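Justification of computing resources. Each target in the renewal requires a structure prediction run like the one illustrated here; the chain below, 100 residues long, is used simply to show the kind of job we budget for.
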Amino acid sequence: MASLHLPLNILKKFVGLTPNRNKGKYSRHIHVVLSPVAINIYMNVKRWKDKWEAPEESKEIIDSLPHKKAIYKLQSRILKILRKAYFLANNQTINNLAGR
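Resulting structure tokens:
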């Protein structure tokens, strides 16, 4: 996922999370990685409502939306989290290389 430096709206188009914006041209590899993760989170939260610790935001998304919309929202949320982690790791690496 070397393209995580892109703005979030362009990144969503690149992954295929913006319908009919890119006429079916998107990175299927990243989409294939995001989909099972989102489905796994969805199924675990549904199955283990109180026993499985998930962020409240994820629980609200899953409880309030239909299946497909919830998975779409979870994919967007995962992408946002990965992008934030990428920037945090990248800044940390740059600071360490500068000898600070």
